[in-house]
Specification:
Oligomer: single chain
Number of strands: 7
Number of helices: 5
Helix content: 25-40%
Strand content: 5-15%
Length: 206
């Protein structure tokens, strides 16, 4: 192994690039050229007619490709199950298109993320995952979150909530990072809830 990657698709892309462009398939003993090799130039080829009109960020195709990756990885199905399970347990949850929030607060497919917002007593949690299928939690820095953040900061153990420093929505930076045990797989819903429920109970008691 010569590198460590967050997803299988990244690793396959690097492998195919090494086989076709860096070393050259004819110089190796690999049986095939690798996943997606049709989109990679051959070694020492500078053919101007090679270009295959790759997706351009902003035209929708990049996001659609990300959506397909997340679907094939099982990420979208798992996150939808988690959202529905939390809703059944009485949590307020919001999807991208469910209304009530500016869409810019949600994880974006173009960034390879899929998730939802869970609102607990003034705090808006973003619960999401990439195709590595690991839980990731941050805060949507909505006006409600910003005015109630002191309640969350009183929770122990210290969640190490970071100050927001990113693109603004409604005059406030969009996101706040927070300490989270990132190695919890999204199919381990119970372990995630064991971490989340005490935080939610703390907020309800404020």
């Amino acid at each position: 192994m010569i590198g460590r990657y967050e997803s299988k698709s990244e690793a396959l892309a690097v492998e195919a690039t090494l086989i076709n462009w860096v070393y050259g398939h004819s110089e190796l003993k690999n049986i095939n050229r690798g996943h997606g090799h049709q989109r990679i130039r051959l070694k020492s080829s500078y053919d101007r007619d090679f270009d295959l009109d790759p997706p351009v960020p902003g035209d929708g195709r990049a996001a659609e490709n990300r959506r397909k990756y997340l679907h094939h990885a099982g990420t979208t199905e798992a996150i939808d199950y988690i959202r529905q399970s939390m809703e059944q347990q009485g949590y307020e949850v919001f999807e991208y298109d469910s209304g009530g929030y500016d869409s810019r607060y949600f994880p974006t497919l173009a960034n390879g993320e899929y998730g939802f917002i869970c609102h607990v007593k003034g705090i808006d949690f973003i619960i999401k995952s990439r195709e590595n299928n690991m839980f990731n939690v941050s805060l949507a820095n909505t006006p409600s979150t910003d005015s109630n953040i002191h309640k969350l900061k009183r929770f122990q153990p210290n969640l190490e909530i970071r100050e927001p420093n990113n693109t603004r929505v409604n005059g406030l930076p969009r996101f706040r990072g927070m300490k989270y045990p990132k190695r919890i797989p999204i199919d381990n819903f119970r372990e995630f809830m064991d971490w989340f429920e005490p935080i939610a109970d703390h907020l309800r008691d404020q």
